[in-house]
Amino acid sequence: MLSVIMTPNIKIMIFIGRREMKKIYFRLSIILLILCWMGFGETRFSFAQDALNQKVMELDARLTAIEKYLENLPVALGDISQNILENVDRKLLVESGKIVSLDLVSQEFSKVDTNVGTFLVAIGKREKTKNRCILYLQVGNPHAVTFKGATMKIRWGSQWNPDSINQTYQQWRESLIGYEYSYSGELKSGQWTEIAVELVPVDDKFEYVEFQMDVNSVELTEKSRY
């Protein structure tokens, strides 16, 4: 049987070895803790970086949307301004009597102001088919002179309903169909002149007609005119 004699030197070496092992274990524990802390820190940094990137992407998307809005803003404001001006011009024309609405039911005449004075206009009769309508206009010349030729602007469509919640006034104006008609005949002094105009297309909502007219020339004598 083999036996080991524990001499003082051996005991000292074993004590020193144990103490060194404890130091090594302590150092390894510190290193392990540092490594774990670094790993957790990297994870938190990764989460923070992802959140920051997401915020940057959201801000970039918002800035892009704002840039597009600002690019289209002048056009939108221009359209709004144009619509306002058109409505104001048309209201002034209506109030001045240059644009009149014609009665489709009765033969009551309206007074229309032209570039040479006031004329009378009424719908004498009408012939309506499926998608068109012929209006036989009666244009009265109350002046002491005969006029030659006329340009008529006619718009038609449904009647404006001020109580409507589904259609604005501007949308109603845009829904009207308009056409310019030329008349080359005479508007004789003190007489009614029948002028036939064809409105195409028309539908079941053909309820409204507005009329505007300008005269081309006036005949002072048979051979003298301007």
Keywords:
disordered N terminus, rod-shaped, 226 residues, 4-stranded antiparallel beta sheet, 8 strands, alpha+beta, 42% helix, Immunoglobulin-like, 2 helices
**Mind telling me the CATH superfamily name of the largest domain?**
Lipoprotein YajI-like
- Low-pLDDT ranges: 1-6, 8-16
Q: What is the CATH architecture assignment of the largest domain?
A: Sandwich
The shape is rod-shaped
* Arithmetic mean of pLDDT: 77
| Beta fraction | 25-35%
According to DSSP, the number of beta strands is: 8
Structure description:
The chain is of the alpha+beta class. The protein folds into two domains: 62 residues; 120 residues, Lipoprotein YajI-like (Immunoglobulin-like), CATH 2.60.40. The chain has two helices and eight strands; from the N terminus they run αβββββαβββ. The strands form two sheets. Strands 1-8-5-6 form a four-stranded antiparallel sheet, with no helix packed on it. Strand 2 and strand 3 form a beta hairpin. The chain is rod-shaped and about 130 Å long. It starts with 7 loop residues before the first helix and ends in a 7-residue tail after the last strand.
Summed up:
This protein is of the alpha+beta class and 226 residues long.
